[in-house]
Structure formats: structure tokens, C-alpha cells
Amino acid sequence: MTCTESPKCRTRRVMRTVALALVLLAFPATWIVAEIVNRDRIEPGPGVIDLPSFAQNMGAPTAAYVLTINGRTYTELIGHRASFPSVPSGPPAYVFDDRGKLLAFTFDDGDDPGYLERWRSGQRHKMTPANVTQLLGVPLTGPGVASGP
Predict the structure, then answer these.
(1) HSE value, Cβ hemisphere, 13 Å, CA-based, for 69
(2) What is the pLDDT confidence band of residue 48, given thresholds at 50, 70 and 90?
(3) Strands, E, within 35-91: which ranges?
(4) For the sheet containing 123-126, what is the strand order?
(5) Is 137 left (phi over 0), alpha (psi -120 to 50) or beta?
């Protein structure tokens, strides 16, 4: 009796096939779970409706900008990038009107042409850390922080 015909060999072959399938399925499952966790961390929940609730629920942004579009002023806050294994082309971004109300949000400002067209079509000036602290009550964090008072 050859090994391919013995029940013991067939059982081993089935076990190896099942183990390989489980390993191969673990990679996409891990990625999907990580994407869900990242989205939950980045997406503003129903309680995030304005600048104070953003500061309370989302923490400090990594950068902040004043946008001027068609004569109107907006505040754009840049959030923390998604963590591995996500590979976004840009960070999340949140736009608030002149009263501090949340108007727009994108998970990835580098992969959202509608966001870029709507919110990056005018002037964009980086806010200083002091301006952001005054606006939000929390300091900026991250490498994209402008220096100055």
C-alpha cells in the first residue's frame, strides 16, 4: 500500500490543506478587522457635531488650516492617519464652518477627489499651535504643526 492510498496519509494531506487554508484566510481577515477598527477610530461619531465635541471625542489634530472659499472662512482639522495594515494616501480631514459646526469629513484626503475639489479649491493657511489651542482647548500633536506663537 502506498502512502497516497493509506488513510493516515490522506488525513495528513487534508490536515495540511486545512491548515494552509486557515493561514491564507487569516491575512485578509486581519486586514478587514484592522480596517474596521481604523474607521471607527477616525470617523466622527454622532456626538461629534462641532469643534468642542470634536476636541472632546476625537482628541488633538495633527494640523489645522484656515480655508477661504468664495469669501467664506472654514476650519480644516487634519486627524491622525490610519494605522497598519491600512495604507491611506492621506490623513483624515474634518471641515467646520465659521460657527464651528462640522460640515464635512473624509477618511483619506488623498483619495477623495470630491473633498479636494470642494475644500481645497480656495486659499489654505496653516494655523499656529497657539491658534489651535485657543480654538479647541487642546494642543496640536504631530509633525505637521506650524511653528510660531
Answers:
(1) 18
(2) very high
(3) 63-69, 72-78
(4) 102-106, 93-96, 72-78, 63-69, 123-126
(5) left
